[in-house]
Design goal:
The protein is mainly alpha-helical and 393 residues long. Helices cover 48% and strands 9% of the residues. The chain is built from 18 helices and 8 strands. Strands 1-2-3 form a 3-stranded parallel β-sheet, with helices on one face. A 3-stranded antiparallel β-sheet has the order 4-5-6. Helix 5 packs across helix 6 and helix 12 runs antiparallel to helix 17. The chain is elongated and about 105 Å long.
């Protein structure tokens, strides 16, 4: 079984999401289960709703899990395991509370009678694993009765039967402690650790959604960073399951490449069904989806496309430099028959207005798009002609 173990603090960033994606991909390749564990026991202040937010993001990226639990559900289990290690003389009660340091007194030599006196006195204490020839003593149960990160993590991995642990390289130094804990608890199953160097300076997933990036492009980008030599640059999650390789993950961290993500987002927006794409802008019309794709030559996000679509359909400003020509053209459009091609439409306006092509070019562009520069009218006209009265008002 594989697991993804986020903490419900702050927004999920791309480096966190990347770990979730890799665990999911490998679980699918192995036809194994994928567990989500919310690590909430070592947090001073829980941010309400962050656990739900994590699960919603995983759902958006189609990272389906087989089970999910919060570490806070297992407090009694951690305390029971710590007590067992105490009884087996593999751990000891210690009044040296600084977790960053080893025991500085003779706490290892205290008897059960001493433990009773400490408990009755109400003095704070921790529980530590005894040192051996390979590792120093360290805290497994804190003053507040909660487990240390390593003890909770190792205990849960053991109880969940996690045999492949894929996580951020920043946890590399914790590996020996966690292996030692499992060994003392009698866990004999072979386990493998893979530590990944994730993206540097990665933004939050939420911020990218707010900017108009879609899950498929973000996922494509994160997998591409991990397997950069794949022959297929544009892909979706099911494709990656077939060829993704842990062994091909680079050992050096990459900085977040915003321009690359913009490019991938454009490519994935092109792949969306036209009618479905139009719903993002309040329509249910394939022509509006096709219109949006015309603007992908200059736009890369949903937000940028939405501004273009809104500018076309909002009431036009008949003031300023082209006011007179725009009014003439608008009146003619309201009287015009249905004209299939842009050339027919433009020639009709030229003939009826008495203006030259150059004279109507900019006013017509502003009338139809809300701006005097942008996509060619000949490209967008086929998709807005059925809305032409609304557009030119």
């Amino acid at each position: 079984m594989l697991r993804y173990a986020p903490s419900p603090v702050g927004d999920m960033h791309l480096d966190n999401l990347q770990i979730a994606i890799v665990n999911y991909l490998v679980s699918q390749q192995r036809n194994d289960k994928f567990l989500v564990r919310i690590e909430d026991v070592n947090i001073d202040k829980i941010e309400e709703g962050k656990d739900t937010e994590i699960m919603m993001i995983l759902e958006k990226f189609a990272l389906k899990h087989d089970s999910v639990f919060h570490q806070s559900e297992h407090l009694n289990l951690y305390q029971t395991l710590a007590l067992r290690l105490l009884k087996e003389k593999k751990a000891f009660v210690c009044q040296c509370q600084d977790e960053t340091k080893t025991c500085s007194t003779n706490c290892e030599e205290l008897s059960e009678e001493d433990y009773t006196k400490i408990k009755e006195s109400g003095k704070p204490f921790v529980v530590r694993i005894k040192k051996d020839e390979n590792i120093d003593d360290f805290v497994i149960l804190r003053v507040n009765g909660k487990p240390s990160y390593n003890f909770a993590c190792a205990s849960d991995d053991m109880m969940s039967d996690i045999d492949l642990i894929i996580r951020d390289k920043k946890y590399l130094n914790e590996t020996n402690k966690q292996k030692h804990i499992k060994k003392l608890l009698g866990y004999k199953k072979e386990e493998n650790y893979v530590h990944i160097t994730t993206i540097k300076e990665s933004p939050s997933v939420k911020s990218l959604f707010e900017q108009g990036f879609i899950p498929d492009s973000i996922l494509n980008y994160l997998i591409l960073v991990l397997n950069p030599n794949t022959t297929k640059e544009i892909f979706r999650l099911p494709d990656a399951i077939e060829w993704f390789e842990l062994k091909n993950i680079p050992t050096t961290a990459k900085h977040f490449d915003f321009e690359k993500l913009q490019y991938l987002n454009r490519e994935h927006l092109k792949l969306i069904d036209d009618k479905l794409l139009s719903t993002l802008f309040g329509f249910a019309d394939a022509n509006i989806g096709k219109l949006a794709k015309v603007y992908l030559k200059e736009c890369s996000t949903i937000n940028e496309l939405e501004k273009k679509i809104q500018a076309i359909f909002k009431p036009k400003d008949f003031s300023g430099k082209f006011a007179e020509q725009m009014k003439i053209l608008s009146d003619l459009i309201f009287e015009a028959p249905i004209l299939d091609s842009f050339d027919e439409f433009q020639n009709y306006l030229i003939t009826k207005s008495g203006l030259s092509e150059d004279e109507i070019s900019k006013p017509l562009e502003k009338l139809l798009t809300g701006t005097a520069h942008g996509a060619k009218l000949s490209e967008i006209y086929p998709y807005i002609k059925s809305y032409i009265l609304e557009v030119a008002s």
